[in-house]
Amino acid sequence: MSERAAPFYCPYCGDEDLRPGEQGHGAWECGACNRAFQLKFLGLLARGLRRADDQGGDGA
Ligand SMILES: [Zn+2]
């Protein structure tokens, strides 16, 4: 029902009692610990979708 990212759990206490915050886009409030936080999309990673294990860890 929304096009923006919604957290499933509070990143601070892990509760699911989240509600949209009043601070605007991406803001959420946790009803369990009374924390307010904001999600922000920072952009795509430059390394793309490749796995990050292609160097320095072959085990030999
Ligand atoms: Zn919380």
Describe, in plain words, how this protein is organized in 3D.
With 60 residues, the protein is mainly β. It has a domain of 40 residues. The protein is 0% helix and 17% strand. It has a three-stranded antiparallel β-sheet, with no helix packed on it. A hairpin with a 6-residue loop joins strand 1 and strand 2. It starts with 17 loop residues before the first strand and ends in a 22-residue tail after the last strand. The structure holds zinc ion.
Strand adjacency order, main sheet: 1-2-3
Strand content: 15-25%
In round numbers, the mean pLDDT is: 82
Hetero groups: zinc ion
Structural classification: mainly beta
Total strands:
3
What is the CA-CA span between the terminal residues? 50 Å
**Which segments are poorly predicted (pLDDT under 50) over 5 or more consecutive residues?**
none
Can you give the helix content as a percent range?
Answer: under 10%
Radius of gyration: 17 Å
Order of helices and strands: EEE
Q: What general form does the structure show?
A: elongated
Oligomer: single chain
Annotation field: number of helices: 0
Summarize the main sheet: 3 strands, antiparallel
